[in-house]
Amino acid sequence: MDTLAGSLDVQAFLITFREVLEALLIVGLITSYLKRVGASHFNKWVWTGAGAAVVASFFVALLFQVVLTGFQVMGSEIYLKITIMLISSVLLTQMVLWMADQSKGIKGRLESKLSDILTTGSVIGMIIHAFLVVVREGVETVFFFAGISGGQIDKAITSWGALFGVAVAGVVSYLFFRGAMRFSLQTFFRVTGAMIVLIAAGLLVQAIGMMQDIGLMKSAMPHVYNLDWLMPEHPVDEAHYVREHGTHPLISGNVGIFFKTLLGYSHSPSIEQILAYLGYFAVVFSWVRFKRRVVAPSATIRTEQTVAVRKNGDVSHASDSTEASRQYGQSAAVVRRANWG
């Protein structure tokens, strides 16, 4: 088995599974809401918009591949690869952080938007809404494929990992809406997000390594340590090690290239790569912790306000009851006096 293709399959599976499942879950939430409010006749327009988004995503992939091929012909492929890796790392990170922040209330916001569209009865509005929901995931997938495949989008799209990711996402989505599978969307996005963060960090350090290889970035310490005896990052490095030492490393270079492509592993990283890798995780996890601390007090305040409103409502209700009893007593006394009189 080609280990380079194997690592691409794993990356493609994680990205495709998450993006396709996210799109299917959102489309499923839309159709479920329409069924609940008795507007199922809009479903065909929802799927029309979603289908148009898939076609548009493939068109974007084709256009992107043409541009990448043009850069390869001009001899600027390495610079384009570095740019794509850096941008993909940023976009992957932004996607994970945004979804971690938005996933909890996504259903409410989605239903609010649909309610507005149903109020106007706009078929075009429903098509556009479904199109935008799906095309965002499609374009993101294309860009991420460009990053993990070094610009060979066609190879990523047709990989077993991508195809398997689509199939698994379809099955999970079907079981979820049939009620045969239950899981928290927030937990799902957290778990898959953590995996994608690892890929994003790998793209970042690989881009830094490539810039240092071609002289775009200097290094204060090109080789902090050397683990070629343990696991070289490429079969070529393993062959060099065997020639120099007359023995094989503990772990094959075929395994090393798998982890290099998937997670950005290097058996001899520069100080800048190490600092970037550690700094990346420090920034991401600090941001997540910060957002949780901001959200938690807000939730506490809302809870306290709700309790206060309920207490005030109970007090008002008790006051109203007391006043009603007093008035009833006065009325009864008047009736008794009238009868006695």
Automatic annotation (TrEMBL):
It is a multi-pass membrane protein. The keyword Transmembrane applies. The chain crosses the membrane at residues 12-34, 46-66, 78-97, 117-136, 156-176, 188-209, 274-290. Its main location: membrane. Coiled coil: none annotated. It is found in: Membrane. One of its GO terms (cellular component) is high-affinity iron permease complex. Keywords: Membrane, Transmembrane, Transmembrane helix. One of its GO terms (molecular function) is ferrous iron transmembrane transporter activity. PANTHER family: IRON TRANSPORTER FTH1 (PTHR31632), PLASMA MEMBRANE IRON PERMEASE (PTHR31632:SF2). Belongs to the oxidase-dependent Fe transporter (OFeT) (TC 9.A.10.1) family. This is Iron permease. It comes from Polycladomyces abyssicola.
